[in-house]
Amino acid sequence: MDINDFRESFKYKLIIPGVFLLSWILMFIGPTFFQAEYQKICIAFIVYFSVRIIHVTLNSVYTYFRFNQTIAKAEALKQARP
Helices in the chain by DSSP H: which ranges? Predict the structure, then answer.
């Protein structure tokens, strides 16, 4: 990657670093102004993502075992062919 690739790009020079800095600033300022609401939103996000992680994990495990069953059936059918 060459630095000259980003010479004329306004997005990479100002907008993306600005959004990055703004997000860090608001992460520290937000709880000061919106304590109760911020706490409720954070707890809701934590609960949502915890449930989502459990859901995805269980689906992945289920899919893995079903895949192994399907492969075993396919191998059995392959061996049963004359």
Answer: 10, 16-33, 35-80
